[in-house]
# Entry
Amino acid sequence: MSVYDEHIARVREYLNERQAREFHCPAAVDELRKGLPVRVGPGSNPGIILRSDMYAELGNPAAGSIGFVVWTENPSLIRDGRIVLVGPDVPQMQGGSYPFGQILMVGGRNLNKESQEIIEGHRHVSDDLEGYMVRSLSHNVWGRVSRDAVAKGFTMETLGRALMIAMKGDMPEVEAMEVVFITSSKEDITQLDPIASSVKGLREAIIKEVWKERGYELDCNVDCSSCDSRVTCDDIKQMVLARKQREKAAVPETQK
# Structure
């Protein structure tokens, strides 16, 4: 049993108590890209979305916001390609500020605690998604969608597919991925707080354990987006990655 399996079950219970719409997407990254109304990939986002260009705001702290990711070594627990939406879709939000919850659930037999940070790094795609901007990157998600993007056909399914493309494209060990969005009410967001708090505690413990095994003691809250030592940590991570790449390159082909 993986560390987050209980949390996945709790998210399922939460969804069973609510009316939701489902979108079913293909598994392969190339197929996920087909038919998207906006660009997805490096350089797709032209920059900041000003209020004058905004169609809708998602997850303003006053409206309610939450975001987290959970993973499992049992991909059968994840309904691959499924996007669940509780609440209105983007085209129904014109000019409004709506609550926003985003839950990513991924599964793969080769996922482990070493995968935690890599998975966390794919929680947001605002830099690689045309017409979408994320203003906050901690345990909340505060974003904007542009009018031009919605005019082209941007929906929550578009955002869900982009998240799947980013995660699966960079992590072949992810065999299944499911995305949940909540835009219904602040109360619905608040009811996710106990799950999110538990996930946050486990995430921090896992990352600290991994870095301790690498020989580094982390004395922080592991919220990299607001950390003054982020540059130093990033440098260390790059050194560790380079070392792993050298070790991998040194392994004979017959042993890979």
